[in-house]
Amino acid sequence: MLRCVAEYLEMTEDYSVGNLVARTDAYLNDVALKTIAGSVSILHISESLLPIAEKTKLVSKCIDAIAYIACNESQLCTSVRSESGSDGVMSSSVSSQQRPVVDWWAEDLTVLRIDLFQRVLIAMMARGFKQFAIGPILMLYAQKSLRGLDIFGKGRKKIEPRQEHEKRVILETIVSLLPKEKNAMSVSFLSMLLRAAIYLDTTVACRLDLEKRMAMQLGQAVLDDLLIPSYSFTGDTLFDVDTVQRIMNNYQESQIGNHFVYNGDDEYFSPPQSDIERVGKLMENYLAEIATDRNLSVAKFISLAELIPEQSKPTEDGMYRALDIYLKAHPNLSDMERKKVCSIMDCQRLSREACAHAAQNDRLPVQTVVQVLYYEQQRLRDAMNGSETAESPSIHTKLNVYSGDIQVSNELTSLRRENEDLKLEVVKLKMKLKEIEISTLKSTVKSTVKSTVNSPIANASPSHSHSADKPPLPRKSFISSVSKKLGKLSPFPRLDGIVSAKGKIKPNKNRRHSIS
């Protein structure tokens, strides 16, 4: 403050030797700016003295002092760590350098305003500060400056527009300062920034940048990192499914790009299989978690399931669990919709436990259950045929042949038992289908007979039989045949008439011309 006042009062050496400007500069250079804590304190106070503090170059002096001391101490700590681990393997020293320890002075930088904080970090990187070591400093600053946002809640917190604008600027600046390295930041921290970006409605570029960064490290993510609440509040899904879908699209694009990377021998290689399997397991758990949402449409569920790479799923048990939960949470789906949901599952890759559960699952369509039983029976048949027609083992396996025979016999016994159970299940399903068809046919016949008997045409007089409103031919033939048979079986013929061959009664000839 004295330095700014001296500048304002023009207390320079032109008017007096040893004036206030020279004395304050000497104190700042020799005492105050020798430590990071002193430099940060002066820079923080200078925020309220702008623009005169900028005119006196007090801000630039503090920033240069912080960058110089921080780089020197960081290089010293790095050299000490590398020397302590020099007797080990080289990979261990590289991993230690890639896992920077938060320096003691990083907490002091969190009191600075976002624009001055950005200038300090840029000056540090210009002096050679390692970019991946910027990550812990950004994490500390973000946790302190973005405090108070209810990014994990269901309701939008009411904050003032001015405060919301300040936090939005802070978040966008932090995202622009993130290191370019792949594993410099944790996925949980990136997920927290993405939640805050959606909550504060930052720019599209800021959110897309975070989504791409998460996609690059998706193999390290956990389920909570993807369960991003939906802040639209329009009666849509509980979680932001569209964001996760874009992250998966970016992941697939990055995996396609990795297939074109080659080594010195011009041999193409794929990303590690364990990473792909972790992503597949993660997405199956995500589908099972969001499947309970009643607002999740069939199209959205299927589109998410189709994004899971096929090579990431050793079995279809996770997918079966997800669609079973979805069918249970959506009992009003039509048969066509249930068939579409079940079409995303490959029944041939289900485990035995999943097949046994699916065979007794009433929520699955009948076609899917029959398909599961068919593939399981085919698998058991192939397994038994393969064990019976297997060639003689090698010399190495002959050493354990006696112990192996016991295991093979037990396996065959269990396979035969399971095969019989599956056949019984198929028979039960066929019997159930026949019972349903018979009951449906009986109800149809009963309703037809009832409607025929209660029809008003059945009680109509013969004079109306040839009218325009005569009943259909099948109903008329049924009534006429019944009446003919009853007439033939009558043991008391009428005395006043003779029954003709056609079943009609003719009057007696003696009474035909009678006057009475």
UniProtKB/TrEMBL annotation:
This is Phototropic-responsive NPH3 family protein. Residues 455-465 have a biased composition (Polar residues). Belongs to the NPH3 family. Residues 103-379 form the NPH3 domain. InterPro entries: NPH3/RPT2-like (IPR043454), NPH3_dom (IPR027356). Signal peptide: none annotated. Keywords: Coiled coil, Ubl conjugation pathway. Residues 455-479 are annotated as: Disordered. GO terms for biological process: protein ubiquitination. Residues 412-439 form a coiled coil. PROSITE patterns: NPH3 (PS51649).
